[in-house]
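Subject: Sanity check before I submit

Could someone independently write out the structure tokens for this chain? I want to compare against mine line by line before I put it in a report. The sequence has 251 residues.
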Amino acid sequence: MKRVILFISLILGSTPISIGQNFSTLGEIYNFEVGDEFQIFSRDISMNYGNNDTVYYLTRNVITSKSSIADSLVYVQNTDIFTCDFSQALPVILDTILLSHPENLVFPVPDSVIFVPNSSDTVYWNQDSYNGRKICVNTWSQPNSYTSMFFVDGCGLAKERYFNTLTGMDCDSLFYFKKGNEEWGQKVLNSISEPKIQETIYLFPNPVGDELTIKYLESNFKIQNVFLLNNLGASVPMRIINYGNEKMQID
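---
Independent answer below. Compare away.
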């Protein structure tokens, strides 16, 4: 199954203005601050065994830490990923894939430039897109296909466009960001009733000895997998000894 991003055209309404090839550095593109928030639409297309079902996702990344180590920019972001139904007037969350999952982002040599002058790479800006922030585009071609990656100053990789003459076009797209007091796009998660997992799942005893009980009060979801991690993030061996409709016991 290939993970690709749902494209939402953001460069409409006025003509993009080229500003030459004054390419941004990695440090300018990934210039995040604690509290920055980014929301992304994506879709998963299954091509296995003739199954063309599409699963839609909504991802939210929030920067929680910023530091410099040696010659690298280092961030920690909390990531939420939900599967969604976009057939409604407002997206409806179907399932929670990740909730407040910490991820490390490391960008070595922030003064470096990943774009190639005098090539198909280019720079432009548009007041209707990303509040007029500079957009650097990296493009490369292969027989019957091309890929374009759109990098926005302060927002990172905002869009990825892939075109193949056989399969059509699949794209990644940032549709909302908040940086300090600056906002752009539609904050979809404000309009979604998010599942309150913490209020429907209870774990006891705490601290745990040899046996842990997981009790779930709602019947509109089913626990599919359970993983135990120690305080270093390493997996802990476990086995399920009792699995009912309202609780699970593991040791």
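---
OP: Matches mine. For the report I'm noting this point. Confidence is low (pLDDT under 50) at residues 1-19, 47-51.
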